[in-house]
Design a protein that fits this description.
Layout (H helix, E strand, L loop, with lengths): L1 E4 L7 H12 L9 E4 L8 H12 L7 E4 H4 L4 H6 L4 E5 L11 H17 L2 E4 L2 H10 L7 E3 L32 H8 L9
Parallel strand pairs: 1-2, 1-3, 3-4, 4-5, 5-6
Length: about 200
């Protein structure tokens, strides 16, 4: 079972990773059924937590649960301990490290996620950098972490354009952590060159 909060078609890298994992699992001989958790994470209200508890505690004990870190990192330890099956967490990015959070919320999320991750049987990260952050800042033993970075589909090598100049494309959600301001700052001195 793969539990993901909110709307699976949401156009973010994390949700794209989840969709691809669900699509590719059968070809690898893995049965992975999507289980939709309520929206509202990573700051769920009492009703969201109550509904999440109903869903997760009803799972069969003999089938492992893969749960997206967007929800898992915000779950109380008591709820996690009530889940009847083995738990593996998919952590894209620690919740507390999202740029622009109120400092009190960031501290709360860091404490909650550290406690939650201590309860997980294993953690899968989508980058080696996130794996290191979890080891150093969230006390997750390295032996309990597997980094599984996303790849790209095979495609012919780009040949470039025939005309003058070039086009630069940056793909990612517009959040401070993605570094678009830094990209614009780096490109500013090149404004006189033929690029868009």
């Amino acid at each position: 079972t793969f539990a993901v909060p909110g709307d699976l078609p949401t156009p973010t890298g994390g949700y794209a990773y989840a969709r691809r994992l669900l699509r590719e699992a059968p070809g690898l001989g893995v049965t992975l059924d999507h289980l939709e958790l309520p929206e509202g994470f990573p700051t769920p209200d009492a009703a969201t937590l109550g509904r999440t508890e109903e869903i997760l505690t009803a799972l069969p004990h003999d089938r492992p649960l893969l749960i997206d870190g967007l929800a898992y990192g915000a779950l109380p330890v008591g709820l996690i301990r009530a889940i009847p099956c083995a738990v593996v967490v998919l952590c894209h990015h620690p919740l507390a490290l999202e740029t622009g959070l109120d400092p009190a919320l960031a501290r709360h999320l860091a404490r909650a996620e550290t406690l939650a991750l201590a309860e997980a049987g294993h953690v899968i990260t989508t980058s080696h950098a996130t794996a290191e952050i979890l080891r150093h800042d969230f006390q997750v033993p390295g032996a309990r972490i597997t980094a599984a970075p996303p790849g790209t589909d095979p495609a012919p090598r780009a040949t470039g354009s025939d005309g003058p100049g070039c086009r630069i494309l940056s793909v990612g959600s517009i959040t401070p952590r993605k570094g678009h301001a830094r990209l614009i700052e780096a490109l500013a001195p090149l404004a006189g060159l033929a690029w868009t």
